[in-house]
Design goal:
Layout: E1 2-4, E2 16-23, E3 26-32, E4 35-36, E5 44-47, E6 51-54, E7 63-70, E8 78-85
Antiparallel strand pairs: 1-6, 2-3, 2-7, 3-4, 5-6, 7-8
Length: 88
Amino acid sequence: VELSCIIKSTVTTDPRIEWKKIRDGETSYVFFDNKMQGDFATRAEILSRTSLVIKNTTRMDTATYRCEVAAPSDTKTIDEINIQLTVQ
């Protein structure tokens, strides 16, 4: 599955992008400090700096995924989007 975090415009040349997984009220890192975290390290990757690709998805991947973008040089320094993923 591919989850996309679209950055429309930024003057920051290298914005910080983080992905988090929120499930049952608990938040965990998926992509942090420019690397995949936990079990995502072996089955996920970042494409084009903004899209999260999760391979071999299971029902355990059903959650809300939050993409957070920090661009300190921009007028809007931080933004986020939540994507609900449901694996049948």
